[in-house]
């Protein structure tokens, strides 16, 4: 009773809080599961809060004339607080509901009491207060939710604030006549949040035609800056196919006139039901005969093309020659293989002239057409018909034409044209015929035999055959052009499958093209793939004409034909001859990335200028890019004008942006394929939350609840990397379905790098919510995932759960596998990366692959080639079951080395996958498994091996243990791709005479030192008949084999020849003693001390610098060191610490980066591995934000002595991928606070579980009591 008589003002806030705590005695009964909404009844003992009667003086009360509104306002504020806080615990309207009982002085809180017509939903407290001031007719209609007597004019006369806060349940009861004025008013007032709520709640009452008409009346469609209009347009376009009329010809014409067709979502275009409309879309957007430029951006979207083709022409088995003829190659080339396999064989046979010219997106599609064509000829194909197939002949099974060499040659050449390895069966059958069934050995082949062989055949043949051709000097320029992958002097992109072949023949090619016997072709005739064999001397001797006219064009196709030392030398030569400014724009990023940032004659990029010549194509973490605009203030207009700035944004730059700029900045981030670091994304999420709060006037809700104010239209312009910070398993589920779907679409559009920046659990939640939203929008859960859903999922198919993988239709699974195996290059940067899959996902994909393509033991060579990048998802037993000859030529492009300027990005993605799944599940681990299986296979070539090397007849393997007894040949090494999985005994069995033919493969992967020593000894022995002197061509491709050099062999090296020096300057695993010996001999052989080494000398010497004493290193010319730093920054981390410290000290000179206290991210990046050599004091002085430039390679090399002094602020700025590359031992060296920062950084925007819930998802009684007490205490204390 005392509490009932207390006056708020008289007792003060403390007394009021005590009174409230007395009143908050709650007794709730919590069921094991929530009953249906209709079954909820008020609890027997509801919680009541006494509200003083009207007229009572106090802080919360007003005069008599306002007592009604005051009572409503009081109840509104308290109720809103209760349920905002309850919602933050994951308990929303489905579990608890506040019912305002008018004029009885009470607020009754009960679990989800069924509403009556006189009760307003709890989240409409503000709306209830606003209703009090409306005209009586509208007030009664709104409170009763009965609009039978309301007219459109009545709705137009409502105050805009009332319209803005119309609750969804009231909107749902308005008919189309009453909705029109609501839409009009919201458009006029530009209220996007309210417009989004109306669009969601109105259902199908207003179709797309009506919405487009309304938008047109309000001012049109083009370049609308009004947010509400954009919400309306987005809704209209997302409903374009859902009405009774659908997307017909008239609507397509209308969208075309208004230039809106390119904005229509693919999902809606896929729903086209009218065949004429579908044909118009195909002809207008995708047909190769279309004269107008494509209006739809995603012209290569297979899912959309497939659906449109189905609607236009029906089932494939009913197609005729005319049907195929009517389609453009751009359409045919995107149709899925499972659809192409159902083509009518006769139609395919009669259309082969067109089909053979079609550029199919994947080998599986081309194979499908080839298989259907073979059915049309009943497997008995004539030579004429083989010619008609064009490059599709690559997919003829060589078993069926084993006795027809002409057809076998055509198979091989077709594979070459499609950038595929040729079937081993085709090669072996031709070679057997050349060797007369065993009567001749390879060593018996003469000059004329070799001239009869095409370059395509030679590059696919065993190394001994190509070695014989080189020995006989029988290769002509045409054959060399074919081996290089291009013709004559034009370069073609090096096929990663044939790097070993290129290495084997490149020295011969350079000599041939330099010789006068080639008709004076010289450098201009040299295929680009062989440029690396020019060596150091070749770059130094290159003419000015070659550097400016021919070389840039060659390097655009094959930039990594040169190694880093050669690239740096080329830049230095262009710079010395004042050719750098004119040549730089046409050089590829792999070379531009090695441009020194400081020094005379170096173009200095400036923001807001056109710097495509320097920065275009570089990743955002490149030194030049990081320095591009560091410390400047950027606006959204700057980012839109130059998207390259997006990836370099720092948290401070985001903090300095005006808040109204944030939506446009986020739109620029979404358009970028090279997004910012996680720290910047986190800051963007904070600014975005700030923007939403200002816009919604909600300053109390937690961040995870703020997406409720964002419409689907707005989400469609936001990056998923920022949206991820707002994902919550309970709050996200409450968002409208169209919003959840747009979030999933946003994630599916991310580049590989940005996708990996979102934690796997958060990605899984987004997929879960997105698919649930699609199910709701389509009227129920679908049992299958088809191409329509796949289009919305996009690049996120790697996040599908095992059950969802199982539900993929054959067509959808086929298209999804292109992303899983890394064939899709969403960034157009030539980086291929397999999806990072956990154990359960890999098992599900294995099952799906076998369902689609059958038992692996029955796969033919072309199937294996087409599926090579997903064979790693099979288990080892599956791989062993694949026919050895088919598996032997399986080489996955995703496993090849990336472009050199993307090496750190590749390493970052691998580190991210290892962190997420563990080292045994990463993409690199899958490659190792495949390499191991290939190194163990014993394929039967009808005794071909014995003909290649007659004195070492292979024994047929009868058991697994026999593998150790089989002598190793270069043929086996080339099949395996490297020597990593061969035993010491097998390596010892390799004939020294052969080693030169597969030296690249033997040294392409790191080797144990004792293995390297075995191979080095064989390499030296192979030169025995030449006096034992190794020439540059003998060791250029040695790689890890050179790490086996003995100390006694160093004196035999001709270190006066820089072409001998530079292979040893690479990271090849040389011991400290060998490095010191080479360094000591180098000065003597070069007849000059280290202090006289110029830039070219330093970039060639590279890791050999680690063999000089610290005192000698201090003598290096600072100018030469500065220009060589882009190469020296990637020295071997194993370089002795005192040497690294001396080299690192040089970077502190004012001519280079200056004192560490002034460094930025570009300086940390430019210092590279030399950062490890800095002192603890220098590391401590580096500004925290500068650590945004720390690369994964440097992060994983940081010693404990430096990690111990890193501050939490510095650790907080380490890039996420670099942090993930650090080992657990390294993390243990950090301070406890720094470890917490690192763990948070590594985790990223993890999806959160809201609140304290019991196992059934209900709020518990003690938690509710504490919650309500805190809410009311907080209200009074304010």
From TrEMBL:
GO terms for cellular component: cell surface. Residues 1-31 form the signal peptide. The keyword Glycoprotein applies. GO terms for biological process: cell-matrix adhesion. The keyword Metal-binding does not apply. Residues 61-76 have a biased composition (Basic and acidic residues). It comes from the Eukaryota. InterPro entries: Stereocilin-rel (IPR026664). Residues 56-76, 595-615 are annotated as: Disordered. Keywords: Glycoprotein, Signal. This is Stereocilin. It comes from Folsomia candida (Springtail).
């Amino acid at each position: 009773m005392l509490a009932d008589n207390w006056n708020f003002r008289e007792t003060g806030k403390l007394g009021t809080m005590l009174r409230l705590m007395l009143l908050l005695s709650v007794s709730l009964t919590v069921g094991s599961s929530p009953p249906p909404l209709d079954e909820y009844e008020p609890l027997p003992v509801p919680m009541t809060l006494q509200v003083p009667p009207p007229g009572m003086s106090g802080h919360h009360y007003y005069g008599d004339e306002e007592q009604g509104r005051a009572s409503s306002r009081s109840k509104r504020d308290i109720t809103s607080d209760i349920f905002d806080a309850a919602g933050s615990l994951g308990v929303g309207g489905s579990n608890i509901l506040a019912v305002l009982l008018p004029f009885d002085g009470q607020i009754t809180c009960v679990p989800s009491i069924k509403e009556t017509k006189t009760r307003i939903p709890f989240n409409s407290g503000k709306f209830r207060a606003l209703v009090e001031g409306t005209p009586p007719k509208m007030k009664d209609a709104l409170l009763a939710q009965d609009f039978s007597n309301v007219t459109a004019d009545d709705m137009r006369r409502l105050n805009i604030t009332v319209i803005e806060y119309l609750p969804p349940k009231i909107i749902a009861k308005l008919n189309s006549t009453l909705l029109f004025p609501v839409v009009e008013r919201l458009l006029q007032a530009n209220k996007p949040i309210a417009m989004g709520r109306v669009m969601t709640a109105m259902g199908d009452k207003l179709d797309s035609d009506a919405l487009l008409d309304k938008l047109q009346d309000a001012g049109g469609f083009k370049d609308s800056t009004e947010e509400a209009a954009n919400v309306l347009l987005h809704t209209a376009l997302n409903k374009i196919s859902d009405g009774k009329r659908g997307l017909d010809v008239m609507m397509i014409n209308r969208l075309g006139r208004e230039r809106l067709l390119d904005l229509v979502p693919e999902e809606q275009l896929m729903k086209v039901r009218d065949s004429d409309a579908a044909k118009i879309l195909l002809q207008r957007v995708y047909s190769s005969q279309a004269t107008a430029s494509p209006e739809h951006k995603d012209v290569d979207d297979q899912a959309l093309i497939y659906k449109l083709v189905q609607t236009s022409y029906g089932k494939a088995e009913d197609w005729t020659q005319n049907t195929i003829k009517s389609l453009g190659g751009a359409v045919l080339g995107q149709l899925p293989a499972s659809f192409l396999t159902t083509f009518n064989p006769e139609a395919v046979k009669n259309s082969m002239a067109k089909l053979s010219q079609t550029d199919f997106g994947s080998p599986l599609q081309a194979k499908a057409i080839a298989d259907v064509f073979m059915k049309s000829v009943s497997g008995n194909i004539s030579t004429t018909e083989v010619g008609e197939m064009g490059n599709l002949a690559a997919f003829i099974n060589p078993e069926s034409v084993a006795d027809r060499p002409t057809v076998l040659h055509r198979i091989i050449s077709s594979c070459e044209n499609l950038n595929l390895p040729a079937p081993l069966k085709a090669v072996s059958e031709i070679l057997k015929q050349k060797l007369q069934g065993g009567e001749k050995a390879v060593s018996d082949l003469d000059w004329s035999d070799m001239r009869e062989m095409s370059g395509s055949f030679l590059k696919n043949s065993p190394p001994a055959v190509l070695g014989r051709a080189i020995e006989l000097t029988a290769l002509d320029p045409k054959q060399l052009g074919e081996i290089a992958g291009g013709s004559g002097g034009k370069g073609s992109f090096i096929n990663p499958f044939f790097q070993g072949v290129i290495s084997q023949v490149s020295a011969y090619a350079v000599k041939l093209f330099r010789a006068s016997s080639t008709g004076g072709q010289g450098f201009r005739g040299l295929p680009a793939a062989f440029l690396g064999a020019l060596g150091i001397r070749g770059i130094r001797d290159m003419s000015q004409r070659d550097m400016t006219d021919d070389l840039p064009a060659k390097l655009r196709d094959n930039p990594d034909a040169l190694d880093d030392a050669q690239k740096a030398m080329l830049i230095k030569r262009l710079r010395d001859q004042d050719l750098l400014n004119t040549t730089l724009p046409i050089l590829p990023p792999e070379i531009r990335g090695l441009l020194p940032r400081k020094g005379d004659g170096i173009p200095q990029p400036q923001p807001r200028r056109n710097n495509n010549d320097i920065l275009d194509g570089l990743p955002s973490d490149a030194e030049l890019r990081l320095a591009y605009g560091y410390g400047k203030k950027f606006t959204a207009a700057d980012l839109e004008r130059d998207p390259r700035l997006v990836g370099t944004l720092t948290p401070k730059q985001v903090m300095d942006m005006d808040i109204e700029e944030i939506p446009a900045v986020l739109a620029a981030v979404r358009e970028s394929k090279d997004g910012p670091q996680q720290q910047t994304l986190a800051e963007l999420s904070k600014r975005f939350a700030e923007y939403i709060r200002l816009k919604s006037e909600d300053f109390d809700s937690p961040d995870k609840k703020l997406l409720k104010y964002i419409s689907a239209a707005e989400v469609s312009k936001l990056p998923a990397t920022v949206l991820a910070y707002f994902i919550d398993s309970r709050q996200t589920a409450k968002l409208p379905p169209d919003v959840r779907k747009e979030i999933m679409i946003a994630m599916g559009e991310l580049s590989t790098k940005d996708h990996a920046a979102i934690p796997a659990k958060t990605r899984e939640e987004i997929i879960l919510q997105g698919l649930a939203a699609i199910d709701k929008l389509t009227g129920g859960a679908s049992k299958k995932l088809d191409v329509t859903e796949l289009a919305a999922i996009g690049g996120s198919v790697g996040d599908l759960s095992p059950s969802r993988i199982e539900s993929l239709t054959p067509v959808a699974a086929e298209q999804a596998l292109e992303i899983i195996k890394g064939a899709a290059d969403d960034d157009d940067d030539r980086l291929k990366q397999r999806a990072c899959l956990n154990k359960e996902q890999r098992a599900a994909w294995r099952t799906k692959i076998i369902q689609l393509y059958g038992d692996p033991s029955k796969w033919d060579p072309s199937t294996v080639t087409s599926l090579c990048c997903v064979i790693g998802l099979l288990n080892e037993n599956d791989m062993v079951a694949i026919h050895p000859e088919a598996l032997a030529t399986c080489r996955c492009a995703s496993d090849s080395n990336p472009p050199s300027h993307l090496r750190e990005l590749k390493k970052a993605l691998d580190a991210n996958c290892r962190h997420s799944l563990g080292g045994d599940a990463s993409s690199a681990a899958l490659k190792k498994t495949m390499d191991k299986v290939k190194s163990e296979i014993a394929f039967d070539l009808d005794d071909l091996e014995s003909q290649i090397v007659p004195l070492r007849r292979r024994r047929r393997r009868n058991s697994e243990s026999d593998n150790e007894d089989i002598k190793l040949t270069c043929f086996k090494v080339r099949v395996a791709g490297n020597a990593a999985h061969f035993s010491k005994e097998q390596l010892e069995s390799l004939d020294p005479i052969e080693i030169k033919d597969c030296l690249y493969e033997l040294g392409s992967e790191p080797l144990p030192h004792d293995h390297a020593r075995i191979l080095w000894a064989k390499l030296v022995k192979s030169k025995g008949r030449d006096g034992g002197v190794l020439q540059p061509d003998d060791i250029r491709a040695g790689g890890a084999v050179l790490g086996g050099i003995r100390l006694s062999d160093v004196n035999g090296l001709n270190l006066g020849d820089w072409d001998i020096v530079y292979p040893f300057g690479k990271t090849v695993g040389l011991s400290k003693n060998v490095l010191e010996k080479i360094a000591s001999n180098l000065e003597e052989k070069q007849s000059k001390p280290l202090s006289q080494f110029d830039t070219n000398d330093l970039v060639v010497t590279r890791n050999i610098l680690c063999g000089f004493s610290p005192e000698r290193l201090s003598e290096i010319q600072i100018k030469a060191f500065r220009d060589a730093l882009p190469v020296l920054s990637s020295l071997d981390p194993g370089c002795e610490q005192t040497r690294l410290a001396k080299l690192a000290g040089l970077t502190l000179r004012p001519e280079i980066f200056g004192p560490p206290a002034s460094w930025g991210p570009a300086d940390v990046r430019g210092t590279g591995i030399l950062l490890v050599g800095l002192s603890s004091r220098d590391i401590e002085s580096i500004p925290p934000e500068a650590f945004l430039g720390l690369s994964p390679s440097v992060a994983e090399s940081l010693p404990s002595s430096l990690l111990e002094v890193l501050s939490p602020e510095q650790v907080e700025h380490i890039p996420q991928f670099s942090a993930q590359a650090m080992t657990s031992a390294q993390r243990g060296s950090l301070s406890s606070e720094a470890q917490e920062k690192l763990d948070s950084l590594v985790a990223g925007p993890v999806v959160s579980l809201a609140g304290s819930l019991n196992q059934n998802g209900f709020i518990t009684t003690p938690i509710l009591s504490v919650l309500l007490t805190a809410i009311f205490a907080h209200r009074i204390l304010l």
